Amino acid sequence: MFKISEFSKISQVSIKTLRYYDQLNLLKPVHTDKFTGYRYYSADQMFQLHRILAYKELGFSLDQIRQMMGEQIPLEQIKGMFRLKQAEIQAMLEMEQAKLDRIKERLCTIESEDKRQMAHDVVLKKVESQLVLSYRKRAALTQIPELFQALDDHAGNSGLSTRSQMVLWHGCEECDDDIDIEVARIVTSDMPSRSPFTLKRLPEVPMMATLIHHCNTTSPCTASAELAVWIERNGYRMKENEPRREICIPHEKSGDANSYVAEIQIAVERA
Length: 271
Prior knowledge:
Elements: E1 2-3, H1 4-11, H2 15-23, E2 31-32, E3 39-41, H3 45-57, H4 62-69, H5 75-116, E4 122-127, E5 130-139, H6 144-157, E6 162-169, E7 179-187, E8 197-202, E9 205-216, H7 223-233, E10 236-238, E11 244-250, E12 259-270
Antiparallel strand pairs: 1-3, 2-3, 4-9, 5-7, 5-8, 6-7, 6-11, 9-12, 10-12, 11-12
Helix pairs in contact: 3-4
């Protein structure tokens, strides 16, 4: 027999761990001196200890290992516990693989965004005052075509001649799914306003940071983010209380009624 200190050295398992396994009835010493309390282990117990360590390495809890080490436990039950552990690890691997796939996808997106960044030319220009017929409402992005349809129906019924369409993006701190959107048509003649449609003159803006891009009215795009980066990097800032403007021209080649070539306009001033 071996003293606990000797057994610890041979097995390379700490005395503290051996004592803990004893308390759990996982690996009891073959003999404990009733006077000194010294624990003694046999060479055969080395095989038991190695099995415990092997099961632990596979991810089984000490309670599960104690069950599997029991003399009366049926072989089929042990197989069942291994199958459950196998399924558990397999599920964990699939979850981690899904995370890995999402990370790879996000990396590709970041790399793609980095390549696209500043792919468009930003132009600073003065924008003259414009007469527009507009319709402002809190709505979802997908409703923009409907808003333009309502606006165009009103303009047509009023006999008003309209030109390029425009979206004015207003800030909305309390908006959730709906956004404070104002759709507008540049018009060539005056007419009385009738709620909810408004005929008004957009003010002249001495300095607009502008960018031409391809977009779709029913989904967000990165062009505004590109323009924001340019504004920050070049020592400008957005003017307060000036909505971002987006003037859209139907892109006939795309075959998509919601596809546009658009010019984003953001009023800026020197920071």
